[in-house]
C-alpha cells in the first residue's frame, strides 16, 4: 500500500516512523515550511521533515492547499503533485494546514487522521493540553476518516489511555504519540484486508480544544489550588505556567496540592523551603516544587531558593 503522509511536529514524526518501520511505501511527505526557532531564530525543519529526509522520502512544503486562498498557484502545484504521486490513502497527523475538499477527494481510499483524544471530546488544536487542564481521568487516540468539518469524521479505531496524576502535556504527548503510531499501522492493515469499518461520531459530548495562547500561562491564584495544579501540568512544556513575584515572572513547572488547612490571601507565600514553595490560592494551597527565573534553569525548589528569596511576599 502506498501512503501519502502529512504531518509536522514530533507527534506526527512518531507516526511516520511507525509506518516506515512497518514497511509501508511512502512516496511523498507533506509538512509545514521551515520555521525560525531557537535563540538565533534560524530556520529549522519540522521533526517530520527531518525524519523523512533522513530516510530518503520526498518532501513537499506548500504554504497552503487552498485553491481559493492567498497562494492559489502554490496550492495548484501541490494538487498536481498529489495527483501525480501514485498512492492509495493519505495519513494525516497534526499537519497544521486545513485540507480542503479538493485535497480530501484526491486519495483513492480517502484521508485518515490520527487524533489525540476520544472523539467527539476535544476536537481541535490542543486536545492533550485541554484534557489535563479539565481534569479528565482518561484520554486516548481516535483514528478517523477525514471530512471538511473540524475533526467531525467517522471513527475507525479508538483506544483509551488513563491520565496519570503526574502526567504533563509532555509526558502524555509521548504516550499518545506511541499509541497513535501503533494504531495507524493497525488501521492500515485492516484497510488492506477490507476489515476497517467506520462509525459516525455521537452528537453528544462534543467539546473543542482551543489552541493554547501564551497569555494563558499567567496563573490566577484566586482560582482553587486543584485547578492551578492541573494548569501547571497542562502548560508543561508549553507555554509554561507562571506567576509574577515582585516584578519578576517566575515559571512554575511542577506542583502538588499542599496539606489541608494552609490558608492565606490568594498568591501569598505561606512557606518556602526544600520541599517546595507553598502558595495560598482561592481555595486551599499549592506546593510548587520546580521553578525557573528568567534566563535561568529549571530547578527544584530547594536549589531555586538559594538564588531567589521567596520566604515572604506574594504572587500578583
Automatic annotation (TrEMBL):
Catalysed conversion reaction: L-methionyl-tRNA(fMet) + (6R)-10-formyltetrahydrofolate = N-formyl-L-methionyl-tRNA(fMet) + (6S)-5,6,7,8-tetrahydrofolate + H(+)
The keyword Lipoprotein is assigned to this record: no
Classification via HAMAP family: Formyl_trans
Gene from which the chain derives: fmt
A GO MF label: methionyl-tRNA formyltransferase activity
Annotated PANTHER family: METHIONYL-TRNA FORMYLTRANSFERASE, METHIONYL-TRNA FORMYLTRANSFERASE, MITOCHONDRIAL
Domain of life where this protein originates: Bacteria
Keywords for the protein's UniProt record, in alphabetical order: Protein biosynthesis, Transferase
Identification of the protein by name: Methionyl-tRNA formyltransferase
Domain Formyl transferase N-terminal positions: 2-188
EC number: 2.1.2.9
GO CC, one annotated term: cytosol
InterPro entries: Fmt, Formyl_trans_C, Formyl_trans_C_sf, Formyl_transf_N, Formyl_transf_N_sf, Formyl_transferase-like_C_sf, Met-tRNA-FMT_C, Met-tRNA-FMT_N
Annotated function: Attaches a formyl group to the free amino group of methionyl-tRNA(fMet). The formyl group appears to play a dual role in the initiator identity of N-formylmethionyl-tRNA by promoting its recognition by IF2 and preventing the misappropriation of this tRNA by the elongation apparatus.
Family per similarity comment: Belongs to the Fmt family.
Formyl transferase C-terminal domain: residues covered: 211-308
Binding site for (6S)-5,6,7,8-tetrahydrofolate: 117-120
